[in-house]
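Sequence, structure tokens reproduced for reference:
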Amino acid sequence: MKFVSFISSAFAAITITSLSVTSAKAEAPAAFQTCVACHQATGAGIPGVFPPLAGSEWVTGPVENLIRIQLRGLMGPIKVAGKDYNSVMPPNASMTDEQIAEVLTYVRNEWGNKGSAVTPDMVKALRSEAGKPMLKVEDLIDPATAPAEKPAEDKPIELKSGEFNDVQEVDSSLPGWVFGFFGICLVPVAVSFVSKK
């Protein structure tokens, strides 16, 4: 009976450990909260008023467009994912280059979007756009005619000491050797232990 209890406890421990390591989706950068009021946390926007970020050709198109929109704002009519919008997006030039890069990289790779990363150096190169008049769609590169960009690759990100990056997905499955260890190593020990009593 002790053997059965031991094995039950061992597998309960494996199950609890397996369940406690949950898959975690990358969290939105804090600076993205500025965007949520109009574009929503889901990236769906507000139909007929504010365009979606999810599935937007403007989001996954030329990086230069997004950076310039962040720094100068955008006004007037624009077609996004086949739907017409006519509103105003104020500039967010008060954000740091790092914040803008982090937010734009996030939206370019969230909600099924696949876009290249935006770096602080890319933002810095266009920082002189801040303070200029708001953009109109005709000031931007048409994503339909722009050369295709390479989507972000799923590869590990190397961080420098002290840097923090959003949580990456975690594999919650236990490796097979854990079950092998309990089956091959601990079961004979348990049987030996029980048989000596």
Remarks:
- DSSP finds seven helices and two strands in the chain.
